[in-house]
Write a structure and sequence with these properties.
The chain is of the alpha+beta class and about 190 residues long. It is about 20% helix and about 25% strand. It is built from 3 helices and 7 strands; from the N terminus they run ααββββαβββ. Strands 1, 2, 3, 4 and 7 form a 5-stranded antiparallel sheet that branches. Strands 5-6 form a two-stranded antiparallel ribbon. A hairpin with a 2-residue loop joins strand 3 and strand 4.
Length: about 190
């Protein structure tokens, strides 16, 4: 029965990842939401992903920042949006102890449905090779407990990877993982597939 239990939770995780990917691709196809122009949308055949690998679905310990300070995050343009360092996540990935900072945008938090929205921009050693050179993002919601799951299979590219018309936060240096994270979204190729 234990094995069935594991299989069910794995299936659920895989389904969640597939749903997440579908949502990302639907956004790019939707004229209202898409960062792509009309011509690029017509040519769009889907995003490129690494194969789903549940070893990149990691248990993390979340520690909230005691006295959060507002700072300006660098972007791919001259824009300097304000963010709050909301906390840190601690975990082990590929046998390496890691820490990533978690951020909140005061502006985004004002939007309905985004009150608990946090994000983790990060870089790793695949950037510029198999993945977008600026880095990738993970979405995060304010957790209700300190132990949570972070799934790198769900990491995605910022909108500036699809179109030069967007300005995207550049992951701060502290969020550089000292390894290849072969998980989640790969580089966007407009004419791929």
């Amino acid at each position: 029965a234990l094995l069935q239990c594991y299989a069910q939770s794995d299936n659920k995780a895989v389904q969640e990842i597939m749903d997440h990917r579908q949502t990302q691709q639907d956004k790019l196809r939707d004229p209202k939401d898409s960062p792509l122009d009309k011509k690029a949308r017509r040519r769009f055949r889907g995003l490129n992903y690494y194969d789903i690998d549940l070893s990149y679905r990691v248990n993390v310990r979340f520690v909230k920042t005691e006295n959060p300070v507002i700072f300006q995050m660098k972007t791919t343009t001259s824009r300097l949006p304000e963010y709050i360092k909301y906390g840190d996540v601690y975990f082990t990935l590929n046998g390496v102890d890691c820490r990533l900072e978690v951020y909140q945008s005061p502006d985004i938090a004002k939007r309905p449905g985004y009150e608990d929205y946090l994000f983790i921009p990060f870089t790793d050693e695949t950037n510029g090779k198999e993945t977008y050179d600026v880095g990738r993002y993970l979405e995060f919601r304010i957790p209700t407990s300190e132990e949570i799951i972070l799934d790198f299979n769900k990491c995605y590219n910022p909108y500036c990877s699809y179109s030069p018309n967007y300005s995207c936060p550049i992951p701060p240096e502290v969020n550089d993982l000292p390894m290849e994270v072969k998980s989640g979204e790969k580089k966007f190729n407009a004419g791929a597939h």
